[in-house]
């Protein structure tokens, strides 16, 4: 089975979904997060035409406190 | 009337930049920021799964503060990581301002000077307004300026140590050699007296977090730091006296009663 990771957690991958579809399926909604695939930032405008492939590492981040 | 802090084309009345982490509660964080008078606050990004919402309240409070947001790249160990996290920050926080951190050593969280310059050069090219968290090394600071940084943030001491200004020789050298560059002491400040000392030395501002957030009463400590930073800046502007090795009476000596010329008969 093909797998990817989202925030270092393994997920099975069906086909080659777009990043937009993957995020929706994973439950991410709104605009309070930003995404990198394999360590490279993906602008929000590119979600729809970024294809997710087996082995991809997806990071989804949101605001936190910091010093 | 104190002069304004001018960085990246903006003017600020406050010379106190404050972090948003480690407070006992979001309400205390929010009140501490308000009492500090800070107009610039730091924050960050971390992985989040869709079920997590606890960060939302804090994020809303920070937004409501009306402060300039200064997202950091804390935890990044390479220029590539820092550049990508910076891009993610810019998209979420909608600001080009960035506290650039590239850490080279886990033990004392010392900035990696090589990764820092590499990341700064790339980020400036991409339009970021970079405020690099750096060591007090003069040549590193010059390279960061060469890379396009207009502000530098040398450490006073390692993050979270509260040790104050550990290397005053290097810090004085930076201030002397880079007189026109806004220099913000970032990290290591543990007490208001240390912040005042940095300001008396001519540094333009102070950025701190732990000393306020971990105080018994963070709101009161935020006020104490605000007063100390204001006092230090006023003292710097007023011009400190020059230190002397020998005593010099402050009360006039002329017409001192009981004084008389030493009796030459009793003098050998």
Rg from alpha-carbon coordinates of chain A? 12 Å
Q: Hey, which two chains have the biggest interface?
A: A-B, 27 and 39 residues
CATH architecture label name of chain A: Roll
CATH topology of chain A: Ubiquitin-like (UB roll)
- Any idea what the shape of chain B is? elongated
Low-pLDDT stretches of chain B are none
What is the CATH domain class of chain B?
Alpha Beta
Largest sheet of chain A, in brief, is: 5 strands, mixed
Give the CA-CA distance, first to last residue of chain B.
59 Å
User: How is the CATH topology of chain B named?
Assistant: TIM Barrel
**Helical proportion of chain A, percent range:** 10-25%
Radius of gyration of chain B: 23 Å
Please give the oligomerization state of what you see.
heterodimer
Strand order of the largest sheet of chain B: 5-4-3-12-11
Features:
A: 67 residues, mainly beta, Ubiquitin-like (UB roll), 5-stranded mixed sheet, B: 268 residues, alpha/beta, TIM Barrel, 5-stranded parallel sheet, 3-stranded parallel sheet, Beta-grasp_dom_sf (chain A), Sulfur carrier protein ThiS (chain A), ThiS/MoaD-like (chain A), Thi_S (chain A), thiamine biosynthesis (chain B)
Helix and strand layout, with pairings?
The complex is a heterodimer of chains A (67) and B (268).
Chain A: E1 3-6, E2 9-12, H1 19-26, E3 34-37, E4 40-42, E5 57-65
Parallel strand pairs in A: 1-5
Antiparallel strand pairs in A: 1-2, 3-4, 3-5
Chain B: E1 5-7, E2 10-12, E3 16-19, H1 26-36, E4 40-47, H2 54-64, E5 68-71, H3 79-93, E6 97-100, E7 103-105, E8 110-111, H4 113-125, E9 129-134, H5 138-146, E10 153-154, H6 168-177, E11 184-186, H7 192-200, E12 205-208, H8 210-213, H9 218-238
Parallel strand pairs in B: 3-4, 3-12, 4-5, 6-9, 9-10, 11-12
Antiparallel strand pairs in B: 1-2, 7-8
